Amino acid sequence: MRQNLAHVALVVNDYDEAIKYYTGVLGFELLEDTHLAPGKRWVLVAPRGNSGSSLLLAKAANAEQKSRIGNQTGGRVFLFLHTDDFRRDHASYVALGVKFIEPPRHETYGTVAVFEDFYGNRWDLIERRSS
C-alpha cells in the first residue's frame, strides 16, 4: 500500500488575506483557488517547488471555527517548513515582518527557529543538517 498526506487544513479568517500572506510574505505558490459555493472556496498553497502536501486555506464558517484561528494546536508548533537555506529565508522573513518568537538555534538535526504566521499559528523554520 502507498499513501501520502495530501493537504492540511488551516482555518483562516479570510481567503484573500490568507493568500496574500502565504504567497506574498512566505513566498508560497497559489496552487488552486476554486469557488465552490457562495462564500466557500477550495484554496491550496504550498512552498515553491514542493511536490508533496499543501495547505488548504479553510475560511472559518462559524464561531467555533473562528475561535480556533491561530491556535489550532493549543500553542504548540503546528507546521514545519524545511528550507535548503535557513539564513536566506530567515533574513527574508524578518525583513517582511514575520514574527520570530525565538532566535535561531542549532540542534543535532539542524538549524531551527519558531515563527508565528499572520494568524498566530506557530511554525518551525528548519534547515536539516546534512547526513
Protein architecture, described:
The protein is of the alpha+beta class. It folds into two domains: 1-69, 2,3-Dihydroxybiphenyl 1,2-Dioxygenase, domain 1 (Roll), CATH 3.10.180.10; 70-131, 2,3-Dihydroxybiphenyl 1,2-Dioxygenase, domain 1 (Roll). The chain is built from three helices and nine strands; from the N terminus they run βαβββαβαββββ. The chain has helices at 15-24, 63-66, 86-95, and strands at residues 7-12, 28-37, 40-47, 54-59, 77-82, 99-100, 105-107, 110-116, 122-128. The strands form two sheets. Strands 5, 6, 7, 8 and 9 form a five-stranded mixed β-sheet that branches. A four-stranded mixed β-sheet has the order 1-4-3-2, covered by helices on one side. The model has no long low-confidence stretch (mean pLDDT 94).
Entry keywords:
alpha+beta, 2,3-Dihydroxybiphenyl 1,2-Dioxygenase, domain 1, 2 domains, five-stranded mixed sheet, four-stranded mixed sheet, 9 strands
Q: What would the CATH topology of the largest domain be?
A: 2,3-Dihydroxybiphenyl 1,2-Dioxygenase, domain 1
Please tell me the CATH architecture of the largest domain by its name. Answer: Roll
Oligomer: single chain
Helix content: 10-25%
Cα separation of the termini? 28 Å
| Rg from alpha-carbon coordinates | 15 Å
Biggest sheet details? 5 strands, mixed
CATH evolutionary superfamily of the largest domain: 2,3-Dihydroxybiphenyl 1,2-Dioxygenase, domain 1
* Fraction of residues in β-strands: 35-45%
Low-confidence stretches: none
CATH class of the largest domain: Alpha Beta
Principal-axis shape: globular
- Continuous helix count: 3
Number of strands: 9
The SSE order reads EHEEEHEHEEEE
Structurally, how many domains make up the residues?
Answer: 2
The mean pLDDT is 94
